[in-house]
Recover the amino acids of this structure.
């Protein structure tokens, strides 16, 4: 839950962002404001094209054409992408993929890297035997576990997850969501969790912001929004999510 | 169901054919390489030795490929010539591929104005037949092995640069590259360690085409008399040399030509095999 005393790990006020240049310059985010407290999981929901990924990219510094306030109080926040086929290097083995963030962080000692890889491998529920495999030799769920381990292994406290379970079937979704909840407790992580599916957000997040057309139209406790949606768009989203289940 | 099974059969059949391409190509290329490597260390006769008695001798057990009008053993000369051709082709390829790789990788990854300018330049160079341009270069520098390698090598850069650039363009915004950036991996490491291994198959197939073009370009230039010097004749030079006796001593043309063709054929099949295997993979 948001603690008003603690300094937020992400602080955003009146954020606007644009893509393109000159005549093609197009505004995507319009006056977005939100705070993410340490140890909190904040869900962002909205239909495809509403600007969720853009918001994620802003937080990670991947979109630079912005105005407004944006403060991220965590070194090297990481991202878990929707498609684990695309987010793991197809030419490399799992062991290499997990060691690379450590090499990038300047961990020179090979034994030390191996130790940390082994630790995170077991944290995400994989085994030594997976280290020698390429991403193509893993299942979708295993791939996403590798992607999660790679995002965590540098010790980042803030993780942005952009539709991390949308490509998985329902059983796997539940497994990965449980894993994410456990990891959050164990490592004291903060999540910015993006999904188009309110039901998924409900399982992991305490608070949720509803986005459409680049704006946040409603924000609050997940239970509150689930039971008493105020904005018509939230109601529509909720109905869609319920009929799907 | 029936359709599915038929498709599966067709699939495996195709894959078998593809493997045949690669297998035959590799075997053929390996044979040629062994043949040529032997020639570096041993030839039955000294390639330049004249033997009055064997002048215009037809192929026989003593002279497998016969002798030319001066009594030189065509088999020995073909061995040496193929070695010369291979060395030049590989050197041309090395210059063109290494420079093309670096230029193409940087252009594709960074993009921007410099990329546009360099690609414009590549288009301009590629618009002319490379042999013609090499002729112009050699008219200035004079003939000789190293000038041929330098001229052809530089002219081979644009096609490699373009190939590599296209691949890097495809990969630079992939999630795994963005992820590497977020982890603080440096650009050069992303280019050469993260992206490059993914484009090896494409590069390899490009190298086989480049190799064949290099063999052909060197042969054409020698044929036109501006290639290597007579003291280290290549296959192309031998063909030019045998022009006058094309009908009277056909073996002087046939054997060097056959070796050149087999060399190109083998490499071409390897390239085709790689390309089709990639097609299956993707
Ligand atoms: N790199 C880009 N360049 C230009 N427009 C983009 C780019 N990425 C996204 N957009 C546009 O921004 C809008 C929001 O996209 P996105 O943030 O990906 O939405 P979401 O993740 O909610 O589906 C869409 O209209 C999309 O077309
Ligand atoms: Mg998105």
């Amino acid at each position: 839950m948001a603690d008003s005393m603690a300094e937020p790990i992400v602080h955003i006020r009146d954020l606007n962002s644009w893509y393109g240049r000159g005549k093609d310059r197009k505004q995507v985010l319009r006056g977005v404001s939100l705070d993410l407290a340490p140890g909190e999981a904040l869900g962002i929901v909205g239909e495809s094209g509403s600007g969720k990924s853009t918001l994620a990219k802003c937080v990670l510094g991947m979109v630079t054409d912005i105005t407004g306030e944006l403060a991220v109080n965590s070194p090297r926040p990481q991202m878990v992408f929707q498609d684990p086929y695309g987010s793991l290097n197809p030419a490399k083995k799992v062991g290499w993929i997990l060691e690379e963030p450590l090499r990038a962080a300047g961990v020179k000692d090979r034994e030390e890297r191996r130790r940390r890889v082994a630790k995170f491998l077991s944290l995400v529920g994989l085994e030594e035997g997976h280290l020698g495999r390429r991403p193509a030799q893993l299942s979708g769920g295993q791939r996403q576990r590798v992607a999660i381990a790679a995002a965590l292994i540098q010790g980042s406290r803030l993780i942005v997850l952009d539709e991390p379970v949308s490509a998985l079937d329902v059983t796997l979704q539940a497994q990965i969501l449980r894993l994410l909840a456990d990891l959050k407790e164990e490592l004291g992580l903060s999540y910015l969790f993006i999904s188009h599916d309110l039901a998924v957000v409900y399982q992991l997040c305490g608070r949720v912001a509803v986005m459409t057309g680049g704006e946040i139209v409603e924000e609050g406790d997940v239970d509150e929004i689930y039971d008493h949606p105020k904005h018509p768009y939230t109601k529509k989203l909720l109905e869609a999510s319920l009929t799907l289940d | 169901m029936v359709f599915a099974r038929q498709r599966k059969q067709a699939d495996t059949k195709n894959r078998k054919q593809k493997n045949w391409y690669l297998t035959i190509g590799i075997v053929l290329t390996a044979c040629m390489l062994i043949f040529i490597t032997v020639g570096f260390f041993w030839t039955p006769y000294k390639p330049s030795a004249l033997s009055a008695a064997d002048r215009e001798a037809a192929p026989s057990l003593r002279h497998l490929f016969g002798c030319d009008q001066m009594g030189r053993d065509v088999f020995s000369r073909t061995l040496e010539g193929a070695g010369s051709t291979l060395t030049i082709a590989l050197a041309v390829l090395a210059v063109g591929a290494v420079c093309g790789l670096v230029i193409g990788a940087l252009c594709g990854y960074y993009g921007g104005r410099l990329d546009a300018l360099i690609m414009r330049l590549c288009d301009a160079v590629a618009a002319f037949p490379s042999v013609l341009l090499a002729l112009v270069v050699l008219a200035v520098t004079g003939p000789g092995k190293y000038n041929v390698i330098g001229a052809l090598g530089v002219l081979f850069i644009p096609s490699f640069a373009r190939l590599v650039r296209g691949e890097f363009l495809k990969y630079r915004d992939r999630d795994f590259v963005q992820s590497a950036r977020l982890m603080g991996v440096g650009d050069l490491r992303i280019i050469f360690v993260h992206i490059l291994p993914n484009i090896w198959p494409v590069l390899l197939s490009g190298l086989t085409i480049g190799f064949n073009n290099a063999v052909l370009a060197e042969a054409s230039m020698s044929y036109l008399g501006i290639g290597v010097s007579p003291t280290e004749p290549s296959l192309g030079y031998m063909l030019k040399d045998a022009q006058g006796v094309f009908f009277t001593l056909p073996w002087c043309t046939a054997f060097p030509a056959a070796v050149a063709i087999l060399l190109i054929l083998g490499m071409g099949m390897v390239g085709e095999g790689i390309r089709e295997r990639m097609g299956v993979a993707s």
